[in-house]
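Example for tutorial group B:
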């Protein structure tokens, strides 16, 4: 009996970064508050940044590479990303909250690759921005309209937002862009909104958006989506309003027939696998 209780306590200890909200178990906190730490990859994709480049990316955005302690502090409140990135002092690792077979070797904690002797190795980056203004949230309603911070006023500089949408299993999420105005820049290098067809901001990348052209509707393959909004240290714009609605999964043969009246919807056909 004592062993059982002890084991239960251990399990509880592991589970406490996760919580129930609106009846749904999720890693709620990192999406709302990640302690100023965020994950960055190169504009050209995953694992493309040398140490010097990773450092420059964070500094360009008004912060610096996160220390191991800062990454661990963020992890303790639920920051979970399945991709290795540079930290301060040439260290590489990534934060795992929820143990999984495909990420983190089934363990939780910082998966630590140690201090790298070769600073030309290419990884992602974990930045810490003490001035970062965090925002975002977790939505589980069947429909919702959310806005960039301060809307209809312009958003601010140094913004770090994560929105996570999780609807009932068996449903899909349709994003509809109602208003959109984000600092325009080649390849959206300054401010951008990214959409992911997955639980985190690693898997299922759909697109990065900036400028004032209204993006097409986007429909998820599953019942979760993540949106990430980052702004740099100068030039703001009007921001955005996005509505999502839920739709039942199409019947087995119905894929592609389920188009909307606008006829310009991006269906995600399940090509984005989970790592
Ligand atoms: Ca900007």
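The residue assignment follows.
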């Amino acid at each position: 009996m004592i062993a059982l209780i002890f084991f239960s306590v251990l399990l509880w200890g592991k589970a406490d970064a996760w919580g129930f909200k609106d009846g749904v178990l999720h890693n709620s906190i990192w999406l709302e508050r990640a302690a100023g730490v965020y994950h960055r990859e190169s504009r050209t994709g995953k694992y493309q940044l040398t140490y010097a480049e990773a450092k420059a990316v964070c500094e360009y955005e008004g912060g610096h590479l996160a220390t191991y302690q800062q990454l661990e502090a963020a992890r303790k409140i639920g920051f979970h990303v399945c991709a290795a990135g540079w930290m301060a002092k040439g260290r590489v690792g990534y934060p795992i909250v929820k143990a999984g077979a495909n990420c983190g070797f089934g363990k939780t904690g910082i998966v630590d690759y140690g201090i790298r002797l070769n600073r030309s190795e290419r990884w992602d980056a974990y930045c810490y921005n003490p001035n970062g203004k965090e925002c975002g949230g977790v939505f589980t309603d069947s429909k919702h309209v959310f806005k960039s911070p301060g809307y209809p006023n312009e958003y601010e500089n140094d913004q770090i937002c994560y929105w996570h949408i999780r609807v009932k299993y068996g449903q899909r999420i349709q994003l509809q862009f109602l208003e959109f105005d984000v600092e325009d820049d080649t390849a959206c290098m300054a401010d951008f909104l990214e959409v992911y067809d997955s639980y985190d901001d690693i898997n299922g990348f759909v697109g990065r958006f900036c400028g004032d052209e209204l993006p097409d509707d986007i429909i998820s393959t599953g019942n979760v989506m993540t949106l990430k909004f980052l702004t740099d240290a100068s030039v703001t714009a009007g921001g955005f309003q996005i509505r999502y609605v839920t739709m039942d999964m199409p019947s087995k043969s119905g894929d592609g027939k389920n188009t909307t009246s606008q006829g310009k919807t991006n269906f995600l056909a399940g090509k984005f696998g989970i790592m």
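The two ends are 38 Å apart (CA to CA). Compare this with the pattern of hydrophobic and polar residues in the output above.
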